Amino acid sequence: MLRALLQVAMNGVGVWLAQEIVPGIHYSGTLPYLLVVGLVLGLINLLVKPIVTLLSLPLIVITLGLFYLVINGAMLYLAARLLAPLRIDGCMPAILGGLVVSLFNWVVSAFAPERE
Predict the structure, then answer these.
(1) Residues of the domain holding 46
(2) Dist CA 22 CA 1 (whole Å)
(3) pTM of this prediction?
């Protein structure tokens, strides 16, 4: 339970960081609503992303994994379409924003203590 809440918070902070770094990503909501953004992004990554990844496995193999960046961007863009305060201005900002969120989650997870 605590791990899931931490993941939601990390997704929210990752989206905030992406809007600070990547031009073309705009967030106009409040800080508590950022947790809702993190929750929605987490649910999309939990439910939709595995199906999209499985269906695009040939493209992932052909591009040596680079198409996975497009999938991450598409999941972020889908979250933006579902949430009014989050706006993404195109394909490239979505891909770069997905990369920022993924890298942020990876770095934070690398420093988090292991579960026993």
Answers:
(1) 2-111
(2) 31
(3) 0.91
